[in-house]
């Protein structure tokens, strides 16, 4: 492969590592990175290409041994470099490699990955959530210069404590519940706000055990006292149901229709009053008018539309309000109203009282 294409491949591998560690803390395998870089650069990228790149600068990546085969390697960002800083340095890394590639006076032979593994230290990757995770050991053989990661003489618990920089604590029987801790030595941990989290008082332990216990007292139902003069639950339910039914009746279509009929009674009375006053040739005792004639005159005189049924229902309400003045008579199939001598002032008073009652 031409060396001029190596800076572009380096930039692609750097971008893939940034995308990987942005959502994961595991170290990707070399095969996985090479496969993705091949699709990204449209050039064949394999272990030999990576060895050519790290031959120019062995500190470009951390090479991690991830298995038992001789080709089980992983790539990670350099030690001590945060993910954000590594992403910002991608253009500078590419430019620096381009300068070394153009420098023909110095030869840079490919570096074997196996030789780089023995020089690496454990990798720490800073994830976006600001938590620091420890990766697997980068070497399959123990080494003294790796501290807790390669020391076979330390137990797993002490090895983890030494790498996390935590002071060991030993449990005691103080407090009766085994939740209180003492330090091995008074000088092992200085007095600090974080020291209090290692100690729990016996009183707090007792309260906590009471909260977590399923005591029968928690399941005893107690009757709430009822104040004098207040309604019981059943009475309140009945009252609420009664109010709901009254509200339904108040806003029902039948109620609205009846109110509309009652409101038209004074206007219909005026039509009948004018009609009875205009016929002077009839006898003064009473006068008769057919219902169809009354309906026609009412529909012509009202500004708003009114149906025949509404006129009939309004006449029926008038006969109930002033029965001595107006009554309905039926002769065969003909309906008519019999109108006696009217007194407008008295009749309107009686009509308004009937409207208020209904």
From TrEMBL:
Residues 134-204 are annotated as: Disordered. The keyword Cell cycle applies. Coiled coil: none annotated. The keyword Cell cycle applies. Keywords: Cell cycle. Residues 232-330 form the DNA replication factor Cdt1 C-terminal domain. InterPro entries: Cdt1_C, Cdt1_C_WH_dom_sf. Transmembrane segments: none annotated. Residues 193-204 have a biased composition (Polar residues). Belongs to the Cdt1 family. This is DNA replication factor Cdt1 C-terminal domain-containing protein. It comes from Australozyma saopauloensis.
